[in-house]
Amino acid sequence: MTLPQSPPDSRAGRVAPPAASLRARIAWRVQRATGWSTILARPVPARCVIVFFPHTSNWDFVVGLLAKWAIGLEVRWIAKDSLFGTPLAPLLRRWGGIPVNRRQRSGMVGRLCDALAANDTFRVVIAPEGTRSRTEGWKSGFYHLALAARVPLGLAYIDYRRREVGIGAWIRLTGDAAADMAAIAGFYRDKAARRPDRVGPIRLDDAGAQRENGRTAP
After folding, report:
1. What are the φ and ψ backbone dihedral angles of 137, each rounded to 5 degrees?
2. Does residue 210 register a pLDDT over 80?
3. How many CB atoms lie within 10 A of CB 135?
């Protein structure tokens, strides 16, 4: 599998100054003041799964949230449930956060698949490593979710070398995991993490994944 060639009107490009809302304009200006640009491949699917990589620092969340606001894109995102046990929980939920307990089987993939089927607009972002520390592979929940829901997979990234953040491509998974992951790895090959020592290989780690009712936890 190779990444599809996009038509001229759907290539990834920098997000223009937004006019939709005050929050979007402020977020865009903060990005510009700090030297960051937001990249977005269009058209954006109404229903999709998005992976975010590399994720090695708490700063990734701050930069990514500013990008979300600057784009004005309605997305949900998965995070460990311990973050929602703090006074920030109401804000995190308002910003699109969905808590998940990675310590035990939770049926999250099944619930997300149902949500994708039930809603005309539902986009969910998953950090496939599941941690800011180095791992030896990606948790495969995102892969099984995109296949089961039959929705596009967005390749979101943060690149500290270019100071870019956003969604660079949309692909359709084939079900050939080895070929799909090779194409995904090719896309991320030149993306620079804040902590390069924490970046592990881009491959599915099914040996470490938990299963519930035939579906893999994210």
Report:
1. 170, 170
2. no
3. 17
